[in-house]
Design goal:
With about 250 residues, the protein is mainly beta. The chain has two domains: about 110 residues, Immunoglobulin-like; about 120 residues, Carboxypeptidase-like, regulatory domain (Immunoglobulin-like, Sandwich), CATH 2.60.40.1120. It has one helix and 16 strands. The protein has a nine-stranded mixed beta sheet with strand order 4-3-6-7-16-9-13-11-12. It has a four-stranded mixed beta sheet with strand order 1-8-2-5, with no helix packed on it. The protein starts with 13 loop residues before the first strand and ends with a strand. The relative contact order is 0.20.
Length: about 250
């Protein structure tokens, strides 16, 4: 596994699915992300952040540490932000930092720049609970992954169903995949996604890892709410020390 090149950090138009770490905010009005200027030369990401309680999360710092010509931006008081000047059709590592939340990596391909990101930052307490449930101590020198498996696109602000019975495999390297219970927290007994559709991996070495997803309904292949697939069902997942990489995966149902 290669280490990821990064620069120092200063401390993802339809709607992106929202779940355990992208929490559905029932009854909360979502602010519309800003509009990007039309250009054929660069891609632009836009989105809106919320706290776990549904409050608009102004002040989230969004950076692209591998894109040296693109600076960081800060979400406004409405939690909205835009990040222009990104290379076209390219895997881009985006980081997000917010008080009380884990530092998060959103890995995204700019081919999906048309898709607005509505996201919730993961409270540190949730990651601590996941680790406690698995009798694991979080290593600050390593990184972690969280994922949710969805049936389809959220094109109208309403989440599609989560997909149970999907298994994830770390293709190489040390680390054990866990799955969440129906309540959304790590479970020792789950051996595939439950009705919650989520899971993850704790304490991975920094670098580029590959997760393979197998669903009873067939291949999990597109769209790309993560880096571009390297093979059917196999997703490259960048991991940074002290960060949690969050990805959404679309898989068919039987």
């Amino acid at each position: 596994m290669s280490r990821l090149e990064t620069r120092p950090l200063a401390h993802s138009r339809a709607r992106m699915p929202i779940g355990l770490f992208f929490l559905a905010l029932g009854g909360c009005t979502l602010a519309e992300p800003p509009t990007c200027d039309d250009t054929e030369d660069f891609a632009c990401f836009t989105g809106a952040f919320r706290s776990l309680l549904g409050e608009r999360a102004g002040g989230v710092e969004v950076c692209t540490p591998q894109q040296y010509d693109v600076g960081c931006v800060t979400a406004d008081d409405e939690g909205t932000w835009k990040l222009p000047g990104l290379p076209l059709a390219t895997d881009v590592l985006v980081t997000a930092s917010f008080e009380g939340a884990v530092d998060t990596v959103f890995s995204q391909n700019t081919a999906m720049a048309w898709y607005d990101w509505y996201k919730v930052m993961v409270p540190r307490s949730i990651m601590a609970t996941n680790a406690s449930n698995l009798d694991v101590e979080l290593d600050p020198d390593k990184g972690h992954v969280l994922f949710i498996v969805w049936e389809g696109l959220n094109l109208d602000g309403v989440d599609t169903a989560r997909v149970p019975d999907v298994t994830a495999t770390l293709v190489e390297g040390d680390g054990s995949v866990f799955y969440a219970s129906s309540l959304g927290l790590a479970s020792k007994s789950a051996d595939a996604t439950t009705s919650n559709g989520s899971g993850g991996v704790l304490n991975l070495d920094p670098g580029l890892h590959t997760l393979r997803f197998d669903a009873p309904g067939g291949d999990c292949t597109e769209p790309m709410f993560h880096y571009a697939y390297t093979a059917p069902n196999e997703i490259p997942v960048p991991v940074l020390a002290g960060h949690t990489t969050a990805i959404d995966v679309l898989c068919p149902v039987p």
